[in-house]
Amino acid sequence: MKIAIASDDRINICPHFGRATGFEIAEIEDDKIITREFRPNDFTGHARDDHDASHEDKHAIIVNALKDCKAVIANGMGLRIQNDLRAAGIEAFLTDETVVEAAIDKYIKGSLDNNPERGCSH
Description:
This protein is α/β, with parallel strands linked by helices and 122 residues long. It has a single domain (2-118), classed as 2-Layer Sandwich (Nucleotidyltransferase, domain 5). The chain has four helices and five strands. α3 (79-87) links the parallel β4 and β5. The longest helix is centred in the middle third of the chain and has 11 residues, at 55-65. The protein is globular, with a radius of gyration of 13 Å. The relative contact order is 0.22.
């Protein structure tokens, strides 16, 4: 299983999912990380500075880019993208945790907090 963590520097979790420089992708098997990669964010509307496409089009691009992930982790994200991710079978975690490594460890242990109210409306 893979999880994606929104990050600007591969160390800290980005405050806003769609504005992240990229996503740290961790592949987990038997409660261990077996691979890690960083996917640059060149697919969100925020990253592409694309204000012409509808929100649905922007979300379809990011959902498709992360479709191999079971979950995404960020410190904040809009309600619409949360719903679009869920509809695609991807769990959205909005956490108070700020460090990528700690979030992965807590996710593996089943102790990562999830605060949907941390979402933003825009």
